[in-house]
């Protein structure tokens, strides 16, 4: 195993390693996606964290990661008639996904909401609180807020609660199925 390096987040207390050097810190679909794309894998780091601190606010405080350096990935379900479309939304931790506006319109859905936890976990193969845009099922739209794509290095889930990935927001925007959607992230409380 290679030496642990300092995260590319200047103020953080995350100790990172190349992601594929620590497959024990990756959900199986995440590890498979990284193995299938060596160019991507070479640019993704992983950091072990306390799983009790996986939720964004607790994580940011404990590891000195600014919320604007942390991205959340949520699974949403858009419905129109008998058709349900699952998609992932990736927004900075300073914002919330505009599910009833931008997401609903993009999915051409009559109604959109956060997917039930059992669906999100079961269909993604990832743990609740650790879902990441890396390694999602083929065919899922991955809606990425423009602020994530422009953020530089960001921290996202690893598919597990006990670790996080660090990668450039431009890489998130280039993942399979990804589409940058400006205005996807709305200020929290708006």
Key traits:
5-stranded mixed β-sheet; YbaK protein; 190 residues; 5-stranded antiparallel β-sheet; single chain; disordered N terminus; YbaK/aa-tRNA-synth-assoc-dom; alpha+beta
Summarize the structure.
With 190 residues, this protein is α+β, with helices and mostly antiparallel strands.
What does this structure look like?
- The chain has 190 residues and is of the alpha+beta class.
- The chain has a single domain (5-182), classed as YbaK/aminoacyl-tRNA synthetase-associated domain (YbaK protein, Alpha-Beta Complex), CATH 3.90.960.
- The chain is 24% helix and 30% strand.
- It has seven helices and twelve strands.
- The chain has helices at residues 28-36, 38-41, 56-63, 99-106, 117-124, 146-149, 169-173; strands spanning 5-6, 15-18, 45-48, 71-80, 83-92, 95-97, 111-114, 142-144, 153-157, 163-168, 178-180, 185-187.
- The strands form three sheets. A five-stranded antiparallel sheet has the order 1-2-3-10-9. A five-stranded mixed sheet has the order 7-4-5-8-11.
- The longest helix has 9 residues, at 28-36.
